[in-house]
């Protein structure tokens, strides 16, 4: 606890002495800004090898949420070698960190964030257009979180050189989205003041197009809760009447929730897994647990469904004469992104454009879509989505705890095209492209946009003022941030430790070694461009 407090104090002091309002810096001319952006793009391009190596290395680690040990060690090592000050273990999370670098006095503090964890049972050889795990049953980057930190680091290093050369004042801060698949990291960092003194956040997330949004996008926020039921064991055959089954309580809660679904808003999404159902059939389970995600589109609706879950859990305990308690694992606020920042980013997106895909890359993408049974086999995107006003009634869907950060400062997400469209998501198929030239090109495009947009924020005080005005006068005028975490909630950093202990020894044999191999594909013996696009016959 003393170490955690010292780290938090050190971070607060660091930010408080480096974060200043952007109005302290005079704006530069449009012509000068254009020239600076060209230099930033050149800085990104000159680091193409570093970008590829970082992307492929993190892919090879394939670490689940809260267990991103090698990943965080590697990224922070690169940043420290390049002059960034790293604070590790923020918010009591061993794999969470911040890395900051300051030039001059004054200027804004701009944060770059991206997630780093992977998906269970998603091990997959990149560049193989059918299911071919590196280590069967092991986790893998079946969403593509291996790519975002490579993007951000390269953008930050290009900016660092430029800020020194051109005497641009400001602070760059990088941070990881730990355990995003558990939505169990960012809300703790927000609660603990990790982002105090930061003026704006540019978040990056893998996608299949180069795009950004403003306002409330489609999707949901959520609260993640584990209900623990406590009963009494007994011999299941000899004296079952002496037992009180915690598993019965879990099953009754699930039945109750499933019956209640019909009477909830259709926008809600909720799911559960039984994480402890007892030990063996001949012992009445004295302990059992079920883990729920309650998703909705507003703070009030999330809290309402959470309260219903609590009520049903207590009813299940009453029916089985058991006791119940619960713990919040994590939460994600409904997202809301900043309009002036998104509009600035969109101008940079249009200047950079989508990567130019080769015929081989398009054939590969279409083969993956065909082999996985995707609804469309159209290959990689060749047209930018563009920026449009938010849907007045956003569709329901997934969650991301970047939402919590979006309610404490101006924030945008930039999606970059390193994945193949029309895939299931959270699936081994989404890992297929993520250490191939498709991912490398997408990361480079995103890195250029991030560097250019950060330059806008560093050198155009009116942009940051407009972003703050939107945040205060539009976004938070009638709705303030509603934290779902209590002061007593703690990150459940033991989650996934057992899975990684089981698979890490086998996975470590396949960690990427860039001193011996040009790419991870080369290390795995995967030919590129791929010539065989259909799975081998199993007959």
UniProtKB/TrEMBL annotation:
The keyword Hydrolase applies. Keywords: Hydrolase, Signal. It comes from the Bacteria. Residues 221-304 form the Peptidase M20 dimerisation domain. Pfam families: M20_dimer. GO terms for cellular component: cytoplasm. InterPro entries: Amidohydrolase, Bact_exopeptidase_dim_dom, Peptidase_M20/M20A_hydrolases, Peptidase_M20_dimer. Residues 1-24 form the signal peptide. This is Amidohydrolase.
């Amino acid at each position: 606890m003393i170490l955690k407090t010292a780290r938090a104090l050190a971070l607060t002091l660091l930010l408080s002495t480096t974060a200043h309002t952007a109005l302290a810096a005079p704006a530069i001319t449009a012509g000068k800004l254009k020239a600076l952006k060209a230099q930033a793009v050149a800085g990104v391009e000159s680091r193409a090898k570093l970008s590829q190596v970082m992307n492929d290395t993190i892919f090879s680690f394939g670490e689940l949420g809260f267990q991103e040990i090698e990943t965080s060690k590697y990224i922070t090592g690169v940043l420290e070698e390049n002059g960034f000050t790293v604070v590790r273990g923020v918010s009591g999370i061993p794999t969470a960190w911040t890395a900051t670098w300051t030039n001059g006095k004054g200027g804004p503090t701009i944060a770059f964030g991206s997630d780093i964890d992977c998906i269970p049972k998603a091990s997959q050889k990149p560049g193989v257009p059918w299911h071919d795990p590196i280590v069967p049953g092991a986790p893998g980057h079946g969403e593509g979180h291996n790519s975002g930190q490579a993007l951000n680091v390269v953008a930050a290093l290009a900016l660092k050189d430029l800020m020194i050369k051109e005497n641009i004042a400001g602070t760059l801060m990088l941070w990881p989205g730990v355990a995003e698949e558990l939505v169990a990291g960012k809300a703790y960092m927000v609660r603990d003041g990790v982002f105090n003194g930061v003026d704006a956040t540019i978040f990056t997330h893998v996608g299949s197009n180069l795009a950004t949004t403003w306002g409330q996008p489609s999707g949901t926020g959520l609260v993640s809760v584990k209900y623990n039921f406590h009963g009494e064991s007994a011999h299941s055959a000899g004296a079952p009447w002496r037992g009180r089954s915690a598993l019965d309580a879990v099953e009754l809660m699930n039945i109750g929730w499933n019956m209640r679904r019909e009477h909830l808003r259709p926008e809600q999404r909720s799911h559960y897994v039984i994480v402890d159902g007892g030990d063996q059939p001949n012992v009445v389970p004295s302990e059992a647990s079920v883990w729920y995600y309650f998703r909705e589109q507003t703070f009030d609706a999330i809290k309402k469904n959470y309260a219903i879950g609590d009520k049903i859990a207590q009813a299940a305990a009453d029916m089985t004469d058991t006791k119940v308690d619960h713990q919040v694992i994590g939460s994600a606020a409904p997202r809301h992104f900043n309009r002036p920042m998104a509009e600035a980013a969109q101008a940079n997106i249009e200047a950079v454009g989508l990567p130019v895909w080769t015929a081989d890359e398009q054939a590969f993408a279409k083969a993956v879509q065909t082999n996985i049974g995707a609804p469309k086999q159209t290959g990689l995107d060749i047209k930018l989505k563009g920026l449009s006003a938010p849907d007045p009634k956003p569709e329901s869907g997934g969650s991301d705890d970047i939402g919590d950060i979006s309610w404490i400062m101006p924030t945008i997400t930039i999606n970059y095209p390193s994945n193949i469209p029309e895939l299931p998501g959270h699936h081994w198929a989404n890992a297929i492209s993520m250490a191939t030239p498709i991912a490398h090109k997408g990361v480079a495009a995103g890195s250029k946009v991030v560097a250019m947009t950060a330059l806008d924020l560093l050198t155009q005080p009116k942009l940051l003022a407009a972003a703050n005005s939107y945040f205060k006068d539009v976004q938070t005028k009638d709705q303030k941030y509603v934290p779902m975490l209590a002061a007593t909630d703690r990150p459940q950093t033991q989650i996934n430790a057992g899975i990684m202990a089981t698979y890490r020894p086998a996975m470590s044999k396949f960690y990427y070694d860039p001193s011996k191999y040009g790419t991870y594909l080369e290390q795995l013996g995967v030919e590129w461009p791929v010539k065989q696009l259909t799975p081998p016959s199993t007959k």
